[in-house]
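Backbone geometry tokens:
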Amino acid sequence: MERSQLKGRVLLVSLILIFALPAIIAKLVLSQQWYTSGVTNFGELIEPKTTLTSVGVDLLPEEGWLLAYVVPENCTRVCEQQVHLLGQSYLALGKYKERVKPILLIDKGNNDTLKDMDLFREVRTDLTNNEPLLSSSVVIVDPLGQLVMRYQGVSTQALLVKQSKGILHDLRKLLKLSRVG
């Protein structure tokens, strides 16, 4: 009798361990930060929730998705290349192109004009001390006016091309998965 009770208790403890051990190990791995999650986006998600109106940009809600470039005060050759590659990324969207409007966010005090900007709509606004809209950055805005992703300004041609591919990848994924706009 004792032998069967001992065998039953060992079986019960082993069954509990079999089901509890994976949860315990998972908790340990996550709490010790031994696991790094895989990220598939190239841009930086904008947290906390920020809208265009909260940063002082007034646009009509019917605009759809926006691909916005924050033009720096002095637009250099790298800035012009960035705008050109952004236009190429917009054209490369293909069937999703109708859902996206490319815009240039220009500070009200900036009198520079960019040449060959037929694709872009210029929006003049106050960009001073505007943390989410950093100079030379690219921002993706959803149809509800919420800033979704930001891409920091880069300084070399190789990084510009890599960033443009990342923007195109992220934007396609957002448009494919989006239920709005």
Observations:
- The chain has a mean pLDDT of 86.
- The CA atoms of residues 79 and 126 lie 19 Å apart.
- Residues 2-31 form the longest helix (30 residues).
- The longest strand covers residues 100-107.
